[in-house]
Specification:
Family: Belongs to the complex I subunit 6 family.
CATH class of one domain: Mainly Alpha
Largest sheet: none
Strand content: under 5%
CATH superfamily of one domain: NADH-ubiquinone/plastoquinone oxidoreductase chain 6, subunit NuoJ
Structural class: mainly alpha
Enzyme class: translocase
Oligomer: single chain
CATH topology of one domain: Four Helix Bundle (Hemerythrin (Met), subunit A)
Order of helices and strands: HHHHHH
Main location: membrane
Keywords: Cell membrane, Membrane, NAD, Oxidoreductase, Quinone, Transmembrane, Transmembrane helix
Subcellular location: Cell membrane
Length: 174
């Protein structure tokens, strides 16, 4: 059996994504969890490249690995939290986590065992960024605009809450 480079790359990226997810659940320091999450995001972007979805890979890197991770780190740094580690017990959490990972792996294996990709011929790999843009701005324009309005309202709400918090602190000092 001859292994192709694409198959080896997929296995490597999938293992990094799975290890990042497992580390995310098992690490105790929040900053280490964010680093594990970055590894997961980058490996998923690599899988997008293997699927010829370069636009999604670029968005994955820019939005998730960049912006979301930085926002999470700023949120961690700006909030008060106690670094109290929970007592190490029997390890039920690790046992349940291992069983959950095994169950997920079995479900994925069962789901893709008889999957046949060769039955359809499609033009997904031809101008995929243009196809995404056309679909987004023609068929899904209303959900796209509603999402942007919700994000704008969220941003305004966060600014209002931050200003109220600053005004309350200034009033306490006087």
């Amino acid at each position: 059996m001859m292994l192709s480079g694409e198959f080896i790359a997929f296995i490597g990226l999938a293992l990094v994504a799975i290890m990042g997810g497992v580390l995310l659940l098992n690490l105790t320091k929040v900053v280490h969890m964010v680093v594990a999450l970055v590894f997961t995001f980058v490996s998923i972007a690599g899988i997008y490249v293997l699927l010829s979805a370069e636009f999604l890979a670029a968005v994955q890197i820019l939005i998730y690995s960049g912006a979301i991770t930085i926002i999470m780190l700023f949120g961690i740094m700006l909030t008060k939290h106690n670094d109290e580690s929970e007592a190490k017990g029997i390890g039920w959490r690790k046992i349940l986590l291992f069983l959950g990972v095994l169950a997920f792996g079995a479900a994925v294996y069962i789901g893709i065992y008889d999957l046949d990709f060769t039955s359809e011929t499609s033009s997904l790999h031809v101008k995929n960024t243009e196809q995404i843009g056309l679909a987004l701005y023609s068929d899904y324009i209303i959900p796209f605009e509603l999402t942007s309005v919700v994000l704008l309202v969220t941003l305004v709400g966060a600014i209002i809450l931050a200003r109220k918090d600053d005004n309350g602190k200034e009033g306490d000092k006087e």
